[in-house]
Amino acid sequence: MNASLIKELRDISGAGLMDCKKALEASDGNIDKAIDYLREKGISKAAKKADRIAAEGLSTVLIEGNNASIVEVNCETDFVAKNEKFVNLVNKIAKLIADNDVSTMEEALKLNTEEGTLNDTLVNMTATIGEKISFRRFARLTKTDSQNFGGYIHMGGKISAITLVEGASEEVAKDVSMHSAAMRPSYVRREDVPANEVEKEMSILKEQAMNEGKPADIAEKMVNGRINKFYKEICLEEQDFVKDSDVTVGQYVKNSGGSIVDMVRFEVGEGIEKKEENFVEEVMSQING
Length: 289
Prior knowledge:
By secondary structure, the chain is α+β, with helices and mostly antiparallel strands. Among the domains are: 3-40, Orthogonal Bundle (Helicase, Ruva Protein, domain 3); 53-142, Tetrahydropterin Synthase, Chain A (2-Layer Sandwich). Helices cover 49% and strands 22% of the residues. The chain contains 13 helices and ten strands.
């Protein structure tokens, strides 16, 4: 099969190398028929990409009245993350979540879209763009009239955060979200930290103290002191506020007449193992296979 013809079809369709080769073989080298072939095979093409790792992408925050959403949608390359179709998809999903009372991914994927369901939309987008598109996670928040949202999007959507405050202003909530984007808190307050995580940290701290040659009773007291540092590192309320390190985030909000109700922070790709791929090797393995 003519390599330039395969490249032409790939450029037009955005489909993979071997998909283009098969399409042209099935269409006797006719580009138009090959394009139709690829469109017909669109869903199966998407399904074949299900085992690919989607570690790039975008996150965003949408606030609409008393409802708000924060979402993360992944793709395989940063190039696609900047694609207008992909950006529009992320914004569309954020609005769907904000406008509908859903709490699980199963419920979210069943939401109605122009293509049928949100799941159908994701499958179609995977086929169109040629990369695995994955709706990874979301949070939907609602507020009362005495509460305020504050959203912050950093690095064009690589990090997003939304904060819900009681009694304080939208600006205060936005400040907290900006702090969260920068300082990566895992929890709002120490009461939110799972007991097993605290126990694990205390065990590590005790081991450290014992290794320093301290007796068990002294080590125990040292652990109680050091655990506060642990909380200060991972709990939003106890972190030093980025705009004024003389106060903690909790104190800043309290001084502004409010309290933090909730905060959600998404960093694109966190926790996903990225797969390093050699493009030349991948192409050769497909051709030889």
